[in-house]
Predict the 3D structure of the following.
Amino acid sequence: MASSTLSLIYSNRPHRLTQVVATMIVALGPLATGLGKGYSSPALASMKTTPSTNGTHSHDFSITPEQGSWIASLSLLGAFFGGIPGGLAMRLGRKSVLAVVALPFALSWFLTVFASSVYMVYASSFMCGICSAVVSLVTPVYISEIAHPEIRGCLCSVAKLTANVGMLLSFLLGVYLDWRQLAMVASIAPALLFLCLMLIPETPSYLLYRGRDEDAATSLSWLRGGHDISQELETMRANIEAMREESEVSCYREWRRDLIKPVLITCGLMVFQKFSGANAFNFYAVPILREAFVGINPYSAAVVVGLLQILAGMVSSVLIDTVGRLPLLIVSNILMSTALAGFGTFLYVTGGNGVNAGGLDWIPLTCALIFQVAFALGISPISWIYIGELFPLKHRGLGAIANSVSYACSFASVKTFVDFHLLLGLHGAFWLYAGISVVGLIFTVVLVPETKGRGLQEMQEKYTPTEKYTPIYNEQGTDNKLLP
């Protein structure tokens, strides 16, 4: 068995290389969203600096804490409004939608670069949020439709990994750049996405569904590195015809039986992911670390946190297809709950400002690092992978529901952090997040299934009545991911 597996891997190197290339190109989208996610932490500190009269600062207005909370959260509100339209837009094509969104994504950053008032920054944040939502929804769908089942989890996790890279870049560059310069850098990633998309094809399943058989064959041949695609193409074509024979009305008749559980699981995971405190920590990393530490530079600590997120994401991309989704989720929630409780306890004992705690900064730093590593290792990437794996294939656009729930919760968690901080203290806010993570652990153990090594067909059979599901594998295991 081992030798046959190795021979499969080595024989398919060209086949996988083109999939990796396509994945890395579309991953420029999540890189752009990561730059936006990490932007507010260093940028808000720069904006809150009183304008200088000696010309050392390029901005000409400063902001209040309340305005800062709106700048941080409006991108998430925009993402909420972009989620459902993004799901509907996928009917126009995966690559096409990414291309249409990439250019305005880049241009929206220029509202911040040339902002003369805080309201222009608000508008930029909101528009970037809309574009981020569409990119975050379409990217994993594109990857899941081109990837071989044996590497699907790994390639899908690349998107989340590049988002963490983008956030780290914002933290790192924010040490040296002011908020206008950082916005200019953030515009580069979506601009590159727009240009590089010209090098890769649309997904073959979408092209077949639209009747573009020759284009589909060309696309599949490129993705398979020139290998024989006749059998796989014929299987895809047969399955699409079977899909077309089904009545669209059946979607509503079967809602309770084959869609409610995937919706419940994916939306639940998004709720617990976003209210775990990770979003608040990422958007307010520098202010939080400044309050928790005495002898450590908060900017440097934020960079270290971002770097560990990337390393944890790399480890997760390997473990997802070996250890499995569910064990990683469980370990992630346990470590997050413990670390959040420890962080809050340290702040409570030291009075919330590190008084008399010089030399003990390693305690909150360790808690922060454990929390971020656990988040990046489990619930962060896996929540998005489940969107692509649990929904019946012909209804996967309904994953936009979980996408919108995710951004609604992100907006609420980031916007309310300042209120929780004032009402409960920083320690109380992190205790609250620890309690939410414990509830998330219970939810995971009770409801979330394991999908490691299971084909999309098997999962479709699980959630769809047997007389209704459309097979997507032939007897030889030919993969056919259809997501019209």
Residues 1-14, 52-59, 247-252, 463-484 have pLDDT under 50 and may be disordered. The longest helix spans residues 399-447.
